[in-house]
Amino acid sequence: METNTVFIIQLSKSTLASFARILLIVFAAESIFLLPFVIARIFRPTFLDVFQLNNFELGTLYSTYGVVALLSYVYGGTLADRCPPGKLMATALIMTAAGGMYLAQFPSYQGLQWLYGYWGFSTIFFFWSAMIKATRNWGGGKQQGRAFGYLEAGRGLIAASIGVVGVLVFSFLLPDDLKAASFEERKAAFRYVILFAVALSSLVGLFVFFFLKEQETQEEISIPKTKNSLNTIIQVAKIPSVGLLIIIVLCAYCGYKVTDILSLYAAEVMLFDEVDAAKVGSYQMYLRPLVCVLVGVFADKSSSALWLIRGFIVLLIGSLLFASGWVNAPLCGLFIFAVVITGIGTYALRTLYYAAVKEGRIPYAVTGTAVGIISVVGYTPDIFMGPVMGILLDSSPGITGHQNVFALLAAFSLIGALASYRFKKMTQSDLIAK
């Protein structure tokens, strides 16, 4: 009896420690992007107003971020294979929060360009590959779908909750008659939203630094270790699955970038006020926890490749709904349905494209390097999607511009589905060969 009691206590401690690790990873993974992306996504009309930007200018900020990130992915990946993930992630969080203090001063457009370039370095070089490797480490040999499902689900829940808190703070500090609020009142209210994100990012960074530890893994190393980062990069780039994952990530990430304009669609096409438009950007994130957990579990029972195909098909349906022009005021029910469909496809894909890394037979020891290589092309939508969406929206005001954006997304969805099908065939061939 005493032996059983000791075993149960040890099991409970192990389970609690495991839960704490994934919780820290999740909080870090979402907090790091609050300032560069989440705030602008949820409060896009307000963000454009208080910083005196148009859609194209905001898109160029994302491009600046993306260019710096592009230069940070690969060698940030090799750094993640050499240093403890927790220390790298904590450094990134504190650096990003420091940039938020500058954002709260409402810098000029030129100042924002420098800030987004700085964030491109802080959130990617120190953070991105380290976070993916920490998640893969948590998932072990048989729960990669669950690991990345929990990561994306938790990120969605946290982002939505933070978004709701941010909307409440913003609306509380504005007069009851929103249309009567002056520019300075809106600016002052928005500053508190920014400072809330700064405080949260800093706090999470401290917890990650002191408490996130990496567990030992028993996975075999099939690529020789080398101190030469360039040689490692070349060897990893030759793995066949890496090229297909690049295409898959690129197409899926285009879908995620398009969710940036859902609150703008609500304001410009569905004629919602600023607070209700922000709620659309926030509430649709609540889809993320449910979709990501379910898809992660299903992927572990079958294959990530199969569910990648299904995710792209769902995203294609959602984008075609918006591109058709049917989703217009006052059809709120159809709008919500289209948002849900698009959200399901987007979040399913975000769950799966790194869960598929192990399925693509990429060794754990070079996970950081592989993620860096995949990301350097896969996340180029950070460079081109913002300006492209800005041009499409500004050149064709109203619903037409939004239709053009979603037609572009439909094309990427189709390409992603075809790449996923090829990835599935390739991984099946590898299993048969073994």
Describe it.
The protein has 20 helices and no strands. With 434 residues, it is mainly α. It has a single domain (21-212, 232-433), classed as Growth Hormone, Chain: A (Up-down Bundle).
Question: Could you provide a short overview of the structure?
Answer:
With 434 residues, the chain is mainly α.
Give descriptors for this structure.
434 residues, mainly alpha, Growth Hormone, Chain: A, 0% strand, globular
- Number of domains in the coordinates? 1
CATH class, anyone?
Mainly Alpha
Structural class: mainly alpha
Strand segment tally: 0
Give the CATH H-level superfamily. MFS general substrate transporter like domains
Straight-line N-to-C gap? 45 Å
Largest sheet: none
DSSP summary: helix tally = 20
CATH topology: Growth Hormone, Chain: A
CATH architecture: Up-down Bundle
The poorly predicted ranges are none
What is the 3D shape? globular
Relative strand content: under 5%
The radius of gyration computed from the alpha-carbon positions, rounded to a whole number of angstroms, is 21 Å
Mean pLDDT score: 82
Amount of helix: over 70%
Report the order of strands and helices: HHHHHHHHHHHHHHHHHHHH
